[in-house]
Structure formats: C-alpha cells, structure tokens
Amino acid sequence: MSSALLAGRAVLNGGFTKLCKGLAVVLVSGYLTVHIIPATISYLALIPARTIPFPLNLVTSGYIEQSVYGVFISIVGLLFMGRLLEPIWGSRELVKFIFVVNFLTSLCVFVTEISLYYMRKEESYLYMPISGFHGVLASFLVGIKQIVPDQELPFLRIKARWFPSIMLLLAIAASFFIPEPAAYTPILVFGTYMGWIYLRFIQRMPETQFRGDTSDDFSLASFFPEFLRPIINPIASAFARTLCGPFETSNDAHDYTLKDFGMLGSHPIDATRRRERGARALEERLAAEKMASARPAEDSQREAADTV
C-alpha cells in the first residue's frame, strides 16, 4: 500500500493539470480501498454475475486498480497523456470522454464475459473481478493519434499514429503468456475501439458545429497496415452502422450526417486544424519546459557573476 502512495507522490508534481491530479488521487484511493477493505472488490469491480443487482460497477470498475503496478502505470499514463489532451479538448470534454469511454468499455466487457461463459461453460468468466483504468489509457492513445499523428517517440522513431496499434498487438501477444488474459485484453481492445467511436462520431469541438472526425487519416482502417485495409473497411462500416445508426454520405467527401447525432464529420480542413492545434500545444509545452529547466542555470551564472 505504501508503494502505491509513493508512486502517486512521485508523479503528482509540477506541470500536470488539476483534473488529472484529482483523477490520480481517485485511482490511488480506489487501490487503497480494495486492499484495506477486500470485501469492497465485490461491489466496485466488474463481476458479471453480480452486475445485474449492482450495475454501478459498470462505472466504478474503471477506477479500481488491483495491483500496485497497475495503479502506478495508470497514474503515470493519466498525468502525461492528460497533460497533452486536456489543453486541447478542455477539462469538461476530457471528463466526458473518460466517463463515456469507461462506461461503454465496461458494458462491452460485461457482454463479452457473459458470451464467453455460455460458449465455454467456465464459471471464472462470471466471477472474475475485472477492473482497471487501462481501457481509458488505451483510448488516450487514440486521442494522441488523432491530434499529433506524426509526432515521433525519441530514439524509437515511432509515429504517434501507430501507438494504439502497437499497444493492441503487444496486448494480444501477451495474452498467450499471462494468466487470466480475459481480465486485461478485452478492456484494452474495447477501450481503443470505444475511444475511436467517440472521437470519430460523437465528440463536438467548441469551435465547429460538426461532430466527430471523418478524415481518412482517422478511419478505423488507418489503425491497420495498408494491405489489410481493403478487408477492414467493410467490417468497419458495418460496425459503425450498428453502433451509430444509418448515415448518409453526400457527394462532398467527408460531409456525413448521422440520424441520431445530427451533423457529423468535420471537413478535412477542421481535422487539419485539430492536428495543427495539437502540434502547436505540444511545441509550446516543450518550449516552456526547456525555458524552465534553463532558468536555474542562468540564475546560478548570474549569482556567480555578482559574486565576482
């Protein structure tokens, strides 16, 4: 338990937003609660057999980490990725994104676990406590892909557009070697997909009347290598119609209207502006951090000169 507190304190310092710090406190509190009072895991985590009488666990399970490693990774991911997303989306939109993605991910995991039980007749799918913030972290990677797709990781030279795909590939590969992969892999898969659904079809940016981002660079097929895209496109269209209702495509490419959501789909210019805004915010923050780190050296040089 003390390790979790130290992990939280280690990253809760300068440069992070108040919202993300507050959510980090929630994650630490959830971890401590289920370890100090183990019985609470039955009510806070997603246990499919108990979800019908306790549907609230579809919401609470996303904020409960059961291991110190999970709470540490979740806090670090939340603080650093939230620091990029919140200035661009705004605090209210980030809260809405986290809540909607977390709930839809939990709902999909619930349906998946019930389906696996009926297919395999293993009671572990009904009574395994499933929880964790990693579904939201996976959706954050989708947001970063949308905002700064061409930003590269230092040393690795991997563009942000491939972060979600690489994460899912590693998660699926790891599922063959870790015990109880059903407790982790579905959350990551559905977190990624629900994050994309929200950003693709639902999110409304304050500076435009349109919803979502229908640019080709943010299609579901863009998560896959080029040779798989002809196969993925029809599947993606079928899922989009199922989840979001029938939509019509006008002759002006990328102008979509969605029956249930009103106007959908930003013009490619809006998508470009969103990416430019994200890149500019990232550059400004890096420049500010560079200036902040340079100030102590300048102050020490000035003091040395005054002494002389």
TrEMBL record:
Annotated compartments: Membrane
Matching InterPro entries: Rhomboid-like_sf, TMEM115/Pdh1/Rbl19
Coiled-coil positions: none
Stretches with biased composition (Basic and acidic residues): 274-288, 296-308
Location, primary (coarse class): membrane
GO CC, one annotated term: membrane
TM stretches of this protein: 23-47, 67-85, 97-119, 125-148, 160-178, 184-202
GO process annotations (BP): retrograde vesicle-mediated transport, Golgi to endoplasmic reticulum
Chain intervals for the UniProt region annotation (Disordered): 274-308
Pfam families to which the protein is assigned, alphabetical: DUF1751 (PF08551)
Lineage: superkingdom: Eukaryota
Keywords: Membrane, Transmembrane, Transmembrane helix
Bilayer topology term: Multi-pass membrane protein
Protein name as it appears in the record: Rhomboid-like protein 19
Organism phylogeny: Eukaryota, Viridiplantae, Streptophyta, Embryophyta, Tracheophyta
